[in-house]
């Protein structure tokens, strides 16, 4: 009798102990950013899922006209080189200056692949090279791209480029070559390793803070909170593409 | 009688030819000399799988991994092309890296011999990340034509894991 009681007591204390341990672990995780980080991490062997949808929020009021930091960071990161032919040189991200003719108000914003939920580039691709990953990142599989450039014509954002020349010195993490179409990959190899895209990193490192990257499906992520509080516009929302890149102040 | 002797002579000649043929091939050094890898990926096999298996099936592994990485974001290191290059493509004594197509480039050493051309390096870099990583501290190890990135400290970290 006393034996069973004591065993009950030990059981109880064990449970209590486990309970408190779990609670303290929860507290340790609790403060904001850490929790967000823990939720994001993906083991290398695990496939991406549609539980996550990566997106960007760009605050054009913080984006200054003369600044080109995001574009430079992208070019450095992916070893993008031009041939002094601005019409056809590849660009994954470009800066736009939009002037309201009536008021004279000038807006500055970076433009790149908007990573649409319903991407027209994927619709028109004859080989399946243009595709959307489960986590919402739109990519070109250059192993099967035949360079027909239908996707370039279909994209309303002029986000894709064609590589006309042979390429040397590719970044190890960004293979690219002649005769295929390419565009912003949202630095997919960084995202898979729980890092920010190069442009976002450069923007925050220079303390502009105009770009924010995160999971649109997670209501606790900073990007979702900001969108919930201040809203964010899609460019050409009338097309119903549901873009992953949203803008504030436009 | 003279016919029989001729036959014997012919047989001897043929036997001699068959014996010397492979020898002459070796003598001319036509067999590929495959460059040594930088390190052993696994203690038991050397490479990630037994060498015989890798020789026969590496293309299957690479093709499978290619699609897994591209479409599903699976970035395991075992059959990653970047990891193959990291280990198998090494600089020579002068710190120079062989290029795809050269007989002393790892892939080309066999592919040239077998006359099988591959497209991998039209898009993928044929040099390892380490050829770039060491460049800020040591410009000597910079591969030829890579000077333009030398001054930049924000080079991609590649496989950061």
Give the topology, please.
The complex is a heterodimer of chains A (250) and B (161).
Chain A: H1 2-29, H2 33-40, E1 54-59, H3 69-78, E2 93-99, E3 106-112, H4 120-124, E4 130-132, E5 138-140, H5 150-154, E6 161-162, E7 181-182, H6 188-191, H7 198-205, E8 211-215, H8 222-230, E9 245-248
Parallel strand pairs in A: 1-9
Antiparallel strand pairs in A: 1-8, 2-3, 4-5, 6-7
Helix pairs in contact in A: 3-7
Chain B: H1 2-27, H2 51-72, H3 81-88, H4 106-114, H5 120-123, H6 130-133
Order of adjacent strands in the largest pleated sheet of chain A: 8-1-9
Distance between the termini of chain A: 76 Å
Bin the helical content of chain A: 25-40%
H/E element string of chain A?
HHEHEEHEEHEEHHEHE
CATH class of the largest domain in chain A: Alpha Beta
How many strand elements of chain B?
A: 0
How many whole angstroms does the radius of gyration of chain B measure? 23 Å
Beta-strand percentage range of chain B: under 5%
CATH level-two architecture of the largest domain in chain A: 2-Layer Sandwich
- Outline of chain A: globular
Number of domains of chain A: 2
Total strands of chain A = 9
Coarse structural class of chain A = alpha+beta
Sheet with the most strands of chain A?
A: 3 strands, mixed
């Amino acid at each position: 009798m006393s034996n069973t009681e004591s065993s009950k007591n030990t059981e109880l204390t064990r449970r209590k102990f486990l309970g408190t341990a779990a609670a303290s672990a929860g507290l340790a995780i609790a403060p904001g950013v850490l929790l967000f980080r823990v939720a994001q991490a993906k083991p290398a062997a695990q496939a991406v899922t549609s539980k996550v949808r990566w997106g960007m929020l760009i605050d054009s009021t913080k984006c200054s006209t003369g600044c080109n930091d995001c574009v430079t960071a992208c070019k450095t990161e992916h070893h993008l080189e031009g041939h002094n032919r601005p019409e056809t040189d590849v660009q994954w991200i470009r800066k736009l200056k939009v002037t309201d003719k009536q008021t004279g108000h000038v807006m500055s914003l970076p433009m790149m692949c908007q990573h649409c939920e319903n991407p027209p580039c994927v619709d028109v691709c004859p080989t399946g090279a243009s595709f959307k990953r489960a986590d919402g990142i739109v990519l070109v599989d250059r192993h099967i791209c035949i360079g027909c450039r239908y996707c370039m014509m279909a994209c309303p954002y002029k986000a894709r480029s064609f590589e006309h020349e042979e390429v040397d010195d590719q970044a190890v993490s960004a293979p690219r070559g002649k005769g295929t179409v390419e565009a912003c990959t949202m630095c997919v190899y960084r995202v898979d390793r729980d890092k920010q895209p190069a442009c976002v990193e450069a923007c925050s490192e220079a303390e502009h803070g105009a770009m924010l990257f995160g999971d649109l499906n997670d209501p606790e992520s900073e990007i979702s909170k900001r969108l919930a509080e201040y809203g964010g516009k899609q460019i050409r929302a009338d097309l119903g593409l549901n873009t992953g890149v949203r803008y504030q102040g436009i | 009688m003279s016919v029989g002797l001729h036959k014997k002579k012919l047989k001897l000649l043929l036997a001699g030819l068959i014996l010397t043929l492979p020898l002459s091939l070796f003598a001319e050094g036509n067999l590929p000399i495959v460059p040594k890898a930088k390190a052993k990926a696994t203690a038991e096999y050397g490479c990630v799988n037994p060498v015989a298996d890798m020789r026969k099936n590496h293309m299957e592994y690479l093709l499978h991994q290619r699609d897994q990485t591209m479409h599903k974001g699976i970035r395991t290191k075992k059959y990653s092309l970047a990891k193959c290059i990291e280990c198998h493509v090494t600089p020579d004594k002068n710190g120079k890296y062989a290029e795809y197509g050269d007989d002393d480039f790892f892939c080309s050493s066999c592919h040239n011999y077998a006359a099988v051309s591959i497209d991998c390096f039209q898009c993928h870099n044929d040099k390892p990340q380490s050829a770039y990583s060491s460049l800020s501290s040591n410009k000597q190890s910079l591969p030829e034509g890579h000077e333009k990135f030398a001054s930049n400290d924000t080079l991609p970290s590649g496989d950061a894991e």
